[in-house]
Sequence to fold (567 residues):
Amino acid sequence: MKRASFWSWLWIALGVLYFLLPLIATLNFSLRARRGVLSFDAYRSVFSDSQFYQSFGFSTEMAVLTIIFSVLLLLPTAYWIHLRMRWLRPVVELVTLLPFVIPGIVLVFGLIKTYSGAPFALTGSRFGTNLLLVGGYIVLSFPYMYRSIDTGLRAVDVQTLTEAAQSLGAGWTTILFRVIFPNVRVALLSGAFLTFAIVIGELTLAQYLLGGTQAFGPYLALVGRNKAYEPSALAIISFALIWAAIGIIQLVGRGSPEQRQLGGMR
Amino acid sequence: MAENVTIKEQASPTSAQAARRGISWGWIGVVPFFVFAVAFMIVPAASLLVGSVQNAQGQFTLDNIAAIVQQPDIVAAYRLSIGISLVTAVGGALFGFLLAYAAILGGLPRFVRTGLVTFSGVAANFAGVPLAFAFVATLGRTGLVTAVLNSIGVNPYRHGFSLYTFAGLSLTYMYFQFPLMVLVIAPALDGLKREWREAAQILGASSWHYWRYVALPILLPSLLGATILLFGNAFGAYATAYALTGGSLNLVTIVIGAQMRGDVLNNPNLGYALALGMIVIMAFSILMYSWLQRRTERWLK
Fold:
């Protein structure tokens, strides 16, 4: 046991080193914008850039829209499958896993090819490209969202809740949004925050659908090409954001075995 | 006649009602989902498939598919992408497994495991542009680790290392690869029951015997499955490589990106074929994964 413990500690130490070294190096680098002393100049410079707020705001907006529509799309579907159409479950599961098969760059390539020409011509207008962007993000969110909703529905007795609500005279929208939704809210949060973490710094779709630096990911890439210390500061800020999102997931999902599902494809 | 039907329905009221409502209502309930999936995922992917077997005039041809295995720069791109995915998948799987094993079965205090899983959840999602920045600050020419190594007399850049090459990109990918392995393999390690080891010991098995004949055969599907998942994870990655190398390293994803920006291949249909090739490889790996997953689940109950 003693020897096993030694090797275990050694591997853990190596892992911690791999985790922490890049973070320490990045933090260190981000504080060196002023010669000779440690300073927050790089952060000050980041936070004084109006484009930072614009792109971050835009990506936040896209993330929120993605989460809302993803839930609107998947919650009724998952509910129906639990209640009435169990035979359809494998099909829906397969479809929600497909985004793993289609890499982001391929998805955006296909979206542009399909919707740039007649009869849709969505790539010509701002509304059109934003629509495609949110649509693409909803596809990317499928694996996480569906899984968290499915987990939530498994934990409640959908059948009984529905029948109870029906016998009290509730319609379908009332059942879905005032009975089922509150019951799976906590499970939904993990999917929502993971989606947020994916969408906020996403580069591929934003770069090719929007062009320019309207979204946060392309903005990050631009800063990376032109500045020295600011990228490190932005990396630290991004890491803190992801940490917050995952932290909240772990906090609300505490004790549920299904929280291991998190952390799929990036 | 009508009475007959009513009687029948009363005989099994719930199932008959459910069946009837299931047909009329159920379809409507799931239609938006399938319409959306078709419009934003199936049709775009299928359009690439169609485009890849057409020439510029829209006639049917297999030239683009043939070019994938014949044109040297495209073969090189696939080779590089597959190479980097293989190296980081196997490396990440090994390191991630050792870490997870140490934390879960290595006799360490409980907080190590909790910490490892939390950290892995964050690191597995810390990818793309910010990850590239972090590694530039670590192993770039002026990075911290480079500086430390330089001060003790081994400048990695004088020994053929560069962050912007195969080796550097692999090290960077490892940052999200092995945490993913930890997350994926942890349930399988939890599934190794203590009783199996005890039973083996009672029957006189050594530690080697236990691993060779009990633990490894049980874990093997999960290990292989997780490695395949890691392979796909690296194979589809674009943002990290783009931000790190600026497109100088010709991965398949980077070539497709260049194709979308301007016509580097002088033939958009060849670009569709490239994308199709990616889907085929990814689909194959996910199929393997789910097959192995099903084999694994037998032991995880």
